[in-house]
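Example 3.2
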Amino acid sequence: MTYSQRSTHPAASSDIMYLEYQIGKVKDDIEEIRIVQEDYEAKLNFLRTAPGYDPAAGSPAEQDLQAKLAAQREILDNVIQQRVELEAELAKYED
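Structure, written as tokens:
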């Protein structure tokens, strides 16, 4: 079945619209995750550049921010992978 045949089929059209919607939603999620990640990075940088900061001390606040930042990076990696999978699924309809 060609793309034009599939894209005119009601079910395929619905699938394409759904995938495009999901990709858009995931892109929005990625942007939100990056904003949170940038916030954690800014707070961590502020903490590390504060007067009297001792890198050897490893404050609980610093450890907390590092853990949150690592969690955001993992979430971001998972969401990016989800986007790749959705885009691959959409590409099947374009073949």
